[in-house]
Known about the structure:
Elements: H1 2-22, H2 26-29, E1 33-34, E2 38-42, E3 46-48, E4 51-52, E5 60-64, E6 70-72, E7 77-80, E8 84-94, E9 97-108, E10 238-240, E11 251-252, E12 258-263, E13 270-275, E14 284-287, E15 297-306, E16 312-321, E17 327-337, E18 343-350, E19 357-364, E20 371-380, H3 385-390, H4 394-397, E21 404-408, H5 416-425, E22 428-431, H6 437-440, H7 443-447, H8 458-470, E23 474-482, H9 515-536, E24 541-548, H10 565-570, H11 576-591, E25 597-602, H12 609-624, E26 630-633, E27 636-637, H13 645-657, E28 661-669, H14 676-697, E29 706-711, H15 721-725, H16 744-753, E30 808-812, E31 818-820, E32 824-827, E33 833-834, E34 838-842, E35 853-855, E36 859-865, E37 868-871, E38 877-879, E39 884-890, E40 892-897, E41 904-905, E42 911-916, E43 919-926, E44 931-932, E45 945-948, E46 952-959, E47 965-966, E48 976-979, E49 983-988, E50 995-996, E51 1008-1020, E52 1026-1027, E53 1035-1046, E54 1064-1070, E55 1077-1082, E56 1085-1086, E57 1106-1112, E58 1116-1123, E59 1128-1134
Amino acid sequence: MQKNGKKLLAWMLAASMVFSFSMPTQAAKKKPALSKKKAVITVGKILTLKVKNISKKTKVTWKSKNKKIATVSKKGKVKAKKAGTTKITARFRYQGKKYVKTCKVTVKKKKTVVVTNAPTKVPTKAPTQKPAVTPTATPTQKPGTPTVTPTQKPVVTPTATPTQKPGVPTATPTQKPVTPTVTPTTEPAEPTATATNEPAGPTVTPTADPDEPTATPTAEPTRVPGTPIPVTDPTKALLLDFEDGTNQYVTGRQGEEELTVVEGGYNDNYCLKVSNRVKNWAGPTIDITHNVTDFTTYKIEAYVKQTTGSNKTINCMWESMDYAGAMAYTTVQNVVAPNGTWTKVDATVVAPGDVSKLSLYFEMANYSNDFYVDNISITEKHLDMEAVLAAPSLKEAYANRFPMGCAVYSYNLQNPEILSFIKHHYSTVTFADELKPENLLNEEATKASEDGMPVINTDVIDKCLSLAQENDLSVRFHTLVWYSQTPDWYFCKNYTPEYDGTGTAKKNITNLVDKETMLARIESYVKQVITYAETNYPGVVYAYDVVNEVIDSNGCKLRTVSSSLYGAIFTDDDNTYITKSFEYAREAEKAANSSAKLFYNDFVGLASPGQMKAVVKYLADAKDAGNIDGLGMQAHQTNLGVADGDNIKNALKLFQQNGYEVQITELDFASKDNSEAGNETLAAAYQKFMNIILQRMDDTSAPVNVSNVTFWNLTDLDTWLNSFYSNGSTYYPSLFDENYLPKKAFTALINLANGVVEPTATPTVAPTATPTATPTATPTVDPDATPTPTPVITPTPEPTAEPEPAETKELDLAQGSIVISATGYTIGSAEETAFTGNYTISSTAQSATAYYILVTGGTHTITLDNLVCTSSESSPIKLSGDAKVNLILVGTSALTGSGYHAGIEVPSGCELTISGDGQLTALGGNESAGIGAASDGKTSSTLGRIIIRSGTIIACNTGRNAAGIGESRYAKGGGEIYIYGGNIYATSSGNGAGVGGGGTADASAETMKIGIYGGIISAGGSTYAIGDGKSQSICKVTVTGGACYSTNSGKTMFGSTWETQDTYVGTEIDTTKLSGIQSVTIDGVDQGISSFYINAQSGTTNYKWKLNLYVKKGVSHTIVVTDTNGEAHEYMVDA
Length: 1135
């Protein structure tokens, strides 16, 4: 039987071979192929290539390997440019299979060479994916972005040549889009309130009305650019001065603008007047497609003017369209133009590549206002490469310490000069935006997926990793699981969000998937990405940021629905998705036999000790399972004095104690001073920070493994800070100036590597160009959370609704009481002025004004600038209705509520957030809080929500029966107080708490919540310093950070309902006999605590206070307090 079986099998095989050879040859003829595999053409001639044996509807993407030799159009027309050899590639998908066909093209010289001034830029290929459209400031929801047909789930064979137009950097802010910037993955280091205002800056300009949804672009561009604009000056790529009296090369973006050449130009006769605009994004646009060359650096100059009567921001932008029809909007420069004064636009930028159209345009907010433009020029700019490469190599200086890295966009690696600079100083790169989920998830293909799992666009991975591979650069893959820059549809049933009818923010989504479904999607996405990258580019990725920024702004819990849809699905304290993400990543990494490390990335190390401990807490499960290797500390620094130095040291020590490798992932300093002294300060800051890192690495008792330091910008040209803060300031945070030449900060780091601690002068290589600011990558910043300056570069996307930039209105309280509504403001008896921007309020009165500020509704940012107010008619500042106020302190302000009034009244339904560098004294009158609720002597208003992030705050009740910060007498409860930072002094004159209840609670009072997560608090109260007032039991107090001083004699300063007392216990240390406190450590970890005592509102110091600390329960602790004389006092606490 076995023998017969073998005969039968042999017969079947033979028959199949005969059958296959007898098949008609027609099938072979139908295989797709190029019309030519090799071709020879002469310079200036055109050859048309075609793909045979495919349907006419098949989309073919053409690409020339060397466009200087020959270019190819979207129709396959090859134009010979100069002698040489290149490869023309055709990519297409036919009958479910992906094809890549090539033709070797040899170009020969022709006998007569015709010289032309026109740039030789011709579009080459249709990208496989539309660049992500992402706002740069901080919109509450990222505009949707159509994507292209994806490549199949990781099976694509990558090519060395990138297959997609480099993504223009985009950030995903939590406000309406504004200026494009780099998107760092962090939040600003200095705590700020949740951004509630619309940012100033570019008005993100669509070509269609942004109020209407944008249609999905077609695969073909709708307009093929014509010939370049003629230029009379051979040194310029473009020059328009309107001296011929015409505007023939300028058109209107909205199509209705009046563009008129008028007299009164800048240093000449004529200029362009722009009027009759009906949208903020409307203005003049110039098609420069054929005037600039791909990935080339240009200096863009122009002069702008406006005559509105006040300062206005005018934006110079450019708009690009790729071959799939995807639009990108990128800021060239935003300038603040004073009334009636010509202001210069002066920026250095890199032109995008592989675009079918590129335009330069100008816009200004408040479309009813006219503006003027003159002397527009574009000049190709080249670096002095001899000087650039003469500087010592940063990566070589630290070669025996750790690799040096920088944040980039793919187009940086396609500019030969910038690439040489990068490779000279760095060995690793982080693609700031391009590898984030919004760019890799393919919506259309995912919705059509048979298994219901997400589908990724591998072309983006190919583009970035192939460029890195070709240039021997290792990549930090940033990032896989992040609440921001991940499309909302990814979290929804059927991949389509549904809303509750009141808005389209994350909190309004009603059809989120369950936990199990979300975990399945995370697993599929994480494994697809890692598998594809490791299979096709083995060894290129040295680290994956698997999870990014999950800790909320208070630094001690996970992000919730207001900012994170992961938090909405997994609830407040469920770290399952974090643990599982690392599990899936490890499985994929092991399956691919990869050596890449798996990291968690956040702004850790620059916030409170509580935040650092929270990171360790929520990662513990992943760490115990062996699925996480290290922590990425973003390190966006706003304080050039490195005031966070102790926190950095403590974080490094804590992470080392828990077995983590550490990498500094997004380092920069927010310096606005480019003077000699400013550069010295910046140099000292960088050197101090790096010295902390080196010292911790050299600590023989507990050395920290720091394995990489990455800077979040290349030069001062490409910092994200200019756009992120949108305050009119120019930042100079980099080691290199606008000419890519070293600054004093660079020299300081080189000296440190060579053992010289004091910074010295910068090498005498003088820059030649005027410093200009250029948008860069957007860090993963989240203004909704405790910010740490957020970066990665970013094109401004096409918004779903027209953004209105936030202007600032300066108001004088000496002119009368101010009422701010959701739609405008009034002063005194005047009628309301419509306004929706920010406010700065001060007073020109010689003494305290008796007028007040009433906010009746809406969300506002108000800066108090040295305001002194004493009011008997109302609380000096009173919120009502649904008002939310972000109060920024500048200088020294004092608010005194006399009678039954608070200093600042915050009733139920309202929210007050305080931040800034200034000092505020807020005094409440009879039975009213310094900051909080007020009483009329019989009843009390119910407290709203108070958030304190920074600043020096003195809040006192001066008339008994109320808290310094919190409730008044007859408290009704239900309020919330959260403190994340700042120096705070809060006392009650009697019966109330320093922070909390006011005494004598209403019988029906609800629970009041108090959270202490950071800051230094000096509090004094009747029964408790923080918590309940006399005869009350309504406060629940959570403490996980900060330091609290009190006048109480009890063992704890917190109320009896201290919520965290199950895991933490308060311990009081008598510091009344010490000269003051220099530092406090608990079990060797510095707590960032020093003396902060203020005797009432007088400002005099008083050291007769006791220090209260929170410590882990059930553990013996060693606490060391070092006084101001340098003497250490040790306390043993058995908790």
